[in-house]
Every structure is written in structure tokens, then in C-alpha cells.
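Would you mind writing out the residues of a protein together with its fold in C-alpha cell form for me to study?
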Amino acid sequence: MTVEQNVLQQHSQKHQQTLLNQLREVTGTTDVQLLQQALQVSNGDLVEAVAFLTEKNAKVPQQDEATYYQTTQVGNDRYISVGSQADTNVIDLTGDDKDDLQRAIALSLEESSRAFRETGITDEEQAISRVLEASIAENKASLKRTHTEVWSDSPNPHDRKRMENCPVGLKNVGNTCWFSAVIQSLFNLLEFQRLVLHYSPPARVQDLPRNQKEHRNLPFMQELRNLFSLMVGSKRKYVDPSRAVEILKDAFKSSESQQQDVSEFTHKLLDWLEDAFQMKAEEDREGEKPKNPMVELFYGRFLAVGVLEGKKFENTEMFGQYPLQVNGFKDLHECLEAAMIEGEIESLHSSAENSAKSGQEHWFTELPPVLTFELSRFEFNQALGRPEKIHNKLEFPSMLYMDRYMDRNREITRIKREEIRRLKEHLTLLQQRLERYLSYGSGPKRFPLADVLQYAMEFASSKPVCTSPVEDIDTSAPPGGTMGQPLPTSSTAEQGPSSLPPEGSAPMTQQRVPIHKPFTQSRLPPDLPMHPAPRHITDEELRVLEGCLHRWRSEVENDTRDLQGSISRIHRTIELMYSDKSMMQVPYRLHAVLVHEGQANAGHYWAYIYDPHQHRWMKYNDISVTKSSWEELVRDSFGGYRNASAYCLMYINDKKPFLIEEEFDKETGQMLSGLDKLPPDLKAYVTEDNGLFDKEVEEWDTLQARKAQQEKLALAAAAETSAAMKSPQYMEQPSPTDDSKHLQEDTERAISKAVAEQQEERSPEGLLSSSGETLSPPPQPEVAIPQVGTFVIESEVGGYDDEAMMTPNMQGIIMSIGKARTVFEKLGPEAAFFKAIKVEYTRLLRFAQEDTALENDYRLQHVIVYFIQNQAPKKILERTLLMQFADRNLGFDERCKSIMKVARAKLDLIKPEEVNMEEYEMWHQDYRNFRETTIFLMIGLELFQKKSFVEALMYLIYSYQYNRELLVKGLYRGHDEELIGHYRRECLLKLNDNAAGMFESGEEPEVSKGLSIMNELVVPCIPLLLVHDTEKDLLAVEDMRNRWCSYLGQEMEPNLQEKLTDFLPKLLDCSTEIKSFHDPPKLPTYSTLELVERYSRVMASLSRVPADGR
């Protein structure tokens, strides 16, 4: 066959596959044989094919011989559906308006066919393109949003740095977790990895692609090579696959079924790879038939052996991914057995040529090195009109032996299948017999027969009683004591209505019967028998009855044991049927499991991939690559336990180690790793990218080193200041002359006042207070400052700010001035100023060095403490202290006023080059941000404690984000990140629980309210938990998703099912991009004293954060 003929045949096959897909979508019929037959009956006319399939109560027509002989002619692009079971219940889509519907379908199909003839591109492919372009456009738009730096990846490149020998993850660029799962599974096939990395485009198409296929496939191959090279040698923890995804837009289908998306994507991927390698193979061939490595790696062949109306046939077909039905089977072998046999096969073994029975078997003649099973976990719900996921449990082994399905073992397998069939028939009979023993009785309630006999024996052996169970109850008068008539005897009761008192007679006064109360009485009444017992039984009767019951029970138990033993032996025989050596020669080891969690049209994908060199399973979940185990794989992949289950299994031939073998240097014999595995062009590409990342790391490290050096210098300066308080030039200069004269006068007045005072010892606070009282004429206003004292205010002009006077800063300054009283009296205000500022700085330095509880955060009380802990420059500290001592509110008495004037004079002496005002303002802005973050946190925690979770969420979200920005600059710039993260996480979990409870109520207002909470609050916040990849946050997200996914298998009203279907895709979106978010709440204004008190109160009320944070 020529190349042109081959291309034409492939084009014809793909066109017919497109017709099959359109027919499947229109009619909802999934049986491929039925679809193929409809196309044959209609001679390829889609309108007639639809009419054929949508006939009311249509029966599947008899298949003719051509159906079997032409299975490869009705092309399916090498991907055929094998093992599907005929669906005789054809969906009736026409109703009463059958003609109108068929006309509409005919017009639609005619337009599709015309578009295909004109452009060569199907409507399906155009829809694929539009869907992906819209998704990519949305992703690009989200990247251009303002303020994205708050929600972006960690600014610290060390958080994004690849650990040594750790696999590289793939970033989810918008609903593409399926891409990561498939690509990682293929990448970890080292033979496939080598083929992609060393691919070079044909020389004849390097300049200009000849057709659309080359124009699409070659750029995709280059992007796939780039992506694989980064996955091999990148220094990044994860890489961005956006460019490859953009080119793959033709691999998408509509969003009706995500599994179809992934299956179709894998089909397209292998198809494109095959085309790309086919071009290369045809160029490299030298008179020989070109070998396509993709075909040799992923494609196999099977033999279809069939009988149609007594006529036998055989036909060889090629397959890629092998589809298997899940529903109705418990393990992979059962799925395969069902897929390998279709129809009634008794006639296959019969020599009668005139048998009317039909059927076929599939036997593998050639298995591919990589054997992929596609598990069909979705079915169409006719009532709801949409696909649903099958959550049934399906087990699969880590080592799969394919011998029983090989054509060379056809005869022995048939013998074993017949033996298994006979054993299963016998097993069914034994199980039915055993059931009669274990569920004995004729009523609705049944019990094991051995137990029934035991109960009868216990009844017979009980102590006989001679009275009625009613007569033997004690009828003595209760305490308090009104005597009543005794209860009627049984004989009286048997008299029936005639024993009742006549009408009009006085009602009978009855004794109140004591009632046994099990929760208030410690034991049974002594006169109440423990069990019912026979009234009359002789010793001889009891002896005979006990003997019979003992014997019967022993016989029943023996029979039960024998049946159970026989059943166990048959099970064991069936299990070991294929365990002999001759049937264990084709081993396939499980390489990868692709998992889907969610429902048919929404969910999350990840992959478990076996590392043969480390002998362990790895979990590839987008950017996260973690160690796993077989137990975790079983939990997530078998299904039945959760809403997660495997949808694709990838096995590799265990006798072909080249599939997973590392590459070795031909000269040195050393194993190649990292960049050494790459060809020169890719090595240069990865080296360049690593250089960019190294530069980013270097810039980050330089910035951090500069900050550390500044902090170190600031710390040294702070220590020097606290030890020697050596002042800068402006601090050493004397104050201006006019100020000095005025200060001298103030000093003389203070000394005269001190001499006139009593000579007894007083505290600095007391002296400061008394000096104010002596100099001020009564009456004057007073201010009481906690921990300092009560002062008379002398200032007449401008007054003072009582709120400022109550701040911890002002209290500390007044106390330091009081402690400088002696220096003020002896040496004047300037010396007292130096003494006071040293006292205050020493006090604040001690606060900064203390290890205090959460509720006593000195940073909120004193900006200087915040600056010291974060190693602010010395000049910033000094100017801030000067500004505090220069506060006008210190003018309430002469001594404070004198020191305030010294501080102002020092401020005036500061030259512009001595203090960087931009840096000064930056530090104070950081402190304002710290206070603002504290207010967000405080209000959020107060609302959380009041269970106002809706209101609390935004405060906690923004406190976490703003606090994270602060912590980037230093450890003491913000609050405990784990604490805020815990309550942010808890608030989201509480909201999720509340919303789920509203949904479970089923009431329309409650359901709408619950979904509104999820859509407006919880869902937008989930990317915030995913972006930093912390274990506790990821577990919280998993808990929230599992809660909603658990509803999928439950019965509910159609409107609830529809709302759930619409909501789940948003919840299961694993993208870390923020689509929409609320603005931060407006913050009230708090004084320092009020903020400190409220913050202290709420932090003191918090319980300790649980160890698991959940």
C-alpha cells in the first residue's frame, strides 16, 4: 500500500469514526455494534441511521455476516469498543413529535456534513477549539487582574525550589488536572520519555509545514519536548505547561462528560504522536516499511472469532486503549472475561453448521508493551437526561497475568472457563442450601436454624412456672396506701365482655401496678422471671426434648460447616484455576493509576505512579508530588468507599525492562541523570530556564542578606545605645541660646519649688504630681493616668488630648521624666532629657526582649518595641523617641514642658541627610499595616467566637493575607501565621458544614441560602488554601469536597440533583487562580488603649490550637 493510500484510508476511518460519535451523541446509544449496524443499514446516511435507532420499541435487528467481517472497515481510528454489551432498550428520543425531531436532526447533520466537506474540520473539533480558547482567554484575563500579588505563588523562590531527586510537578493552569495526570504517567515511562526528548522533526518540514496536520503536530511535539526537558532537569518544584495546553485545544470536547474529555485527550495525544513519528519514520526509512515507535509501544492486536447463524469467521483487529465496562463486575478479570466474550458462544464449540446462535470471542494475538485499560465509570441516566458516575468498587491487581486471554492459549482457556462455569453452577446450589440454614423461617424475620434450636432448648430448660405471667405480679398496696381490687385472673379475663361491670355502675378502683424502670432501678424486681418458661413439663419430657434438640442442633451445625467448607474450597479452586506456571508467562505490572474524584461532568484528577527504582508508589497531584503507598492507592482507586475511583489503568510488560530502565553513557557506563539525559538543544533550553531561576534565587538571597545585615547593624546599634547611649551630632549639640535661657529659668523655678517642699522621701510620681499642684493655682482640671498618678493641668493654651495622655507611650514618657527629677533639679532640663530618654529606651528594650503571652503584645502598646524587634535603623528609633518626647500633651507642668522643649530643639537640629525621611515613613507605614492587620484579626476572632462565621470569614481571610505580606519582611513583622491559618480554616469548615446542613434539609430557601454561602464565600476562598500547599489546608479542602461529593450516590429530588450538578464543578475546580473576591471590610477606628484591651481579651479567651489544626 502506498503512502497516499494509507493516508486516504486513515482519513476515511477517521471520518467514519466522526459519524459514529455524532450518532452516539444524538441518540444516546452507546453500543458500538448497534451504531455500526445503523450506519450500514442506512449506507452512511445519518438521517436514516437516526430514524433506525429512534424507532419506538425498536428491536435490535439480526446482524448479518458482513457486520463481523467488516469491523475494521467501519473505521474507528484504531480505537474500537470491545466488550460492550448490546443495549436492547433503545432510548426513544422522538415522543409524539418524531417527524419534527428527525427533520431538526437532519438539518443539523446536513450542516455538520457540509462544514466538514468545505473545511475538513468537524463541528466537534470547532467546538473543542472554542471551548479551550475561552478557557485560555479566561486564564489570561485572570492573570492581568489587579492586586494579584496577594494571591500569587510564594514570593520566596526557595519555597518553589525542587528538592534533590524529587519529581517535578505540573502547575494547574485552569481545569487541567487531567493533563497533569496523563502527562506524568507517560513521562514516567522512561522509554516514552526518551522517544519524545530525542525526537527531531523531518528535515523537509523544518522550514514550512505542508498541511494542517504538520502545522499542528510539529509545534506540539516541540512544546512537549520542552515540557519533558523541564520535568527532567528543572530546578523548580513545578513547571508551567500552558504552552503545550494551548496547542492541545483540538483534544477537547464539550463539557458534557469529563471522562470523555480525558479519554478523548489521551486518544488525540497518542494520535498526534503517532502522526509526528510516522512522518519521521517515513523520512528515515531505506526501502523498508517504516516502523512507528508509538504504534509499537501502545498498540496491540486481537483476533475476533465469531459465529453468525452457524457460519464461523475470524478477523484480526488493532487496538490502543482497551475499554472495559465496570458496572456489574467486582474485579478486573471479571471485566476482561465479559469483554472477551460477546453474545451466546455455545455454538463456537459445536460442530453443527446449522446452529442459529451467534456470538464472538476476542483473543489477543499481540499485546503492546504498554497495556492501557479505560474503565467506563459513566452511564447515561435516561430519567435525568445526563451522564452519571458509577461508584461501584472494582478491584485490580498490581501484577496482571494475561495468559488466559492470549490466542495461543485459546483451547486450554476454553477448558478452564467451562470448568469454572460448572464450578460456579455447583457453587450457586451450595450457597442456596447454606442460605436455608442461615435464614430459617417462613415469616419476614428469619434466623439461623442452629440459633432457633438453641433458643428452643433454652426455653425448655427454664424453670417451670405454675401461674400466669399476669397473676404472679405482686399486687400489694403501694406506699401511701389505697387498697384496690386485684387484677382479673386469666379465667375471668377469658369470660370476655360479659365480665365487664354493667353500665351505670361505679367504676372499678384498681391497684396501680409497679412499673419497672430500667434507667432508675438497679436490678429487676425479684418476682419477675428472667425468661419465659413452660408452665408444665415433666422430667421425662424435658430429657427427650433436650436430647432431640441437642442432636438436631449438632446435625445443623455439621451441615453448615460442611457447606461452608465446600463453598470455600470451590472459591479457592476458581482462584487457583490460572495459577499454574503455564498460565503465568505474560506478566504485566501496574505502572500508573489515573484517579477521578467527583461526578460525570465535574471532578478532580490525579495519578499514582510506581517508582521501580525506589520500590514505592508516588502520588502526582498537580504541583504536589508526594510519597504514597499501595494502601492509599487502594483506598482512592478501587471505588465504593469514596467518590474517588480509577478511570484508567496503565500496565507494562514486566518482561520488557527497557520501558523503565535508565539510560547509561556508552563510554563511561555511568547512569545518565538530569541535564545529561537531554540532547544539546533541550539542555540549552533548560540551562537558560535554570539560570533565570538561579537569578531569582540570588536576587532574593541578596535582598534577604541586605535585610539581615541591616538588622544586624541595627541590633548592634541598639545594644550600643542601651550600653553607652552615645548620641549623634544633633544630640550632642547644645540647644539654641534663647531656649537655653528659658530652660534655665524653668530650672531655677523648679529648684526653688523643691527647696520649699517637705524633705521626706517621695516617689518620682508623687514628686511630679506634687510639683504640679504647688505651681498651679486652684482649682485646675486634673487627669488621672493609670500606673502614674493624678496630675493638675497647667496648660491654658491648646489644652491636652486626654486620649493621648492615656496611651502606654505617654504613660512611659511621664514615668521616665519623673525618674529624671533629681537630674532636672541639679543639672537642668537638658541633662534631665537625656536621663529620661535613656530610662524610657531601656524600659522598651526590656519589653522587646521579653517572651510574653499572646494576649500581652507590647508591639501594640509601643511602636518602639515593634521597631526594636524588627531591627529598625538607629536613626529611625531616635527620631521616633524624640517625636514622643516632643508631644505637646507634655505641657501640663513645668518640668515636662521643659523636657518637651529640649526634645523639640533636638528635632530642629536634625539635618536632612542625617535621617532618611522616606525610610522613616516606610517603617511607620509598616507599623500602621501591623495595627490594621491586628484589627482584622481581632474582629475576625471576636465574630468567630460569637459563631458569626459569615461575617468573620472576610476578616480572617484578609488578616491572613496581610499578615503573610508582613512576615515576608521579617519574623516579628506580623502575628503567628499558624494561629490565623487555623481559625481561617476552621471558619471555612464551619461555613461548609452549615451550608451542607441547609442543603440536606431539602427546603428551597435553605438550599438556596446554603449554596449561596458556598458560591459567594467558601468556593472563592478554596484557592487561598491550595496556593501555599500546606498539609492542613489541603486536608480541609479535601474534607469540604468529600462532604459534597458524598451526596452523589444518594437519592434526592431532581431539582436538588440539578443544583448539585451545577455547583460541584465550581467546588472541585483545583485551579489556584482567584476568579472573584470580596473587597476588604471597612475597619473602625480604635484608640491604642482600646485596641490593646480588646486584643488582650480575645487572645486570652482562645483555647490552644489543636495539634492537627482541624
The longest strand covers residues 587-599. The domain at 4-52 is CATH 1.10.8.10 (Helicase, Ruva Protein; domain 3). Residues 996 and 1057 are 14 Å apart (CA to CA). The chain has a mean pLDDT of 74.
